[in-house]
Amino acid sequence: MTLENKVAIITGGAGGIGSATADLYASQGAKVVIADTNEQAGKKLEGMIRKKNGEATFCKVDVSDYNSVKNLIDFTVEKYGSLDVLFNNAGIGIRKPFLELDLKSYHQVIEVNQHGVFYGIQTAAKKMVELKKKGVIINTSSINAFVAMADRFAYQVSKSAIKMMITSAAFELAPHGIRVVGIAPGSVNTDILQFHRKEGTLELARRGQMTNRLIEPEEIAQVVAFLGSDESSSINGSIVKVDDGALGFKFRFDQKQSK
Ligand code: NAI
Prior knowledge:
By secondary structure, the protein is α/β, with parallel strands linked by helices. The protein contains 8 helices and 7 strands; from the N terminus they run E-H-E-H-E-H-E-H-E-H-E-H-H-H-E. It has one domain (7-255): Rossmann fold (3-Layer(aba) Sandwich), CATH 3.40.50.720. It has a 7-stranded parallel β-sheet, sandwiched between helices. Residues 255-259 have low confidence and may be disordered. 1,4-dihydronicotinamide adenine dinucleotide (NAI) binds next to helix 1.
């Protein structure tokens, strides 16, 4: 499996899953654009990858802003001359009980997680069609697209929307040779689980997995590398559950505990 010379954008590239993926992609020969709001972490990662003789460039982006996403696509093609993979991965979580969910929080989550993914799919696909590139667009959904937990209404709605975006966009983009796929991670050891650490409930997140441990971001990156490679050419319009069995076999959260 190799990503040699593929040009890949990774949104949320400075975060846990994104940075592990950027690192792996670069080590497999891809030219990586680390796209994130977090300039400091993004530039640090760029330096780290370059030190290992990988190719990476940071580009500041706010995925909830259509023009910012469009600029990211243009920047990438200007810099590296192509676009083979978009990993639409930036996301946020705001936890509030449904009856206390204010409009600001609701819109914030939907704008980043849901609208941001649409902006990415559409702008990348337009560019791939223009360049006649048979690229792949990989999107980060979640096990929360399949099961509901307390206090995550907006997050779950957004991740569920991504599920249908994948199928719907894949259907229309297939004639252009563009694949649209996704991943649904279980509990991954990144900053997004900070609330569990603060509240001392990390054990609950661990217990959601078959092996009673958090999934490491590097394990997710391996799947994203496969999906971005030509070896996964027969996977299209679907979501790979990267959840260590959380959904299918041993989903042990309950409403009260999952808070
Ligand atoms: P993280 O918090 O480490 O990374 C998220 C990254 O997205 C951060 O670097 C952040 O700066 C960036 N970001 C946030 N808003 C942005 C915006 N408007 N524009 C551009 N970048 C923005 O968390 P993690 O876990 O790496 O999250 C990556 C994706 O994985 C998210 O979509 C998340 O919902 C999803 N996910 C994570 C799970 C977990 O347990 N860690 C489980 C299931 C899904």
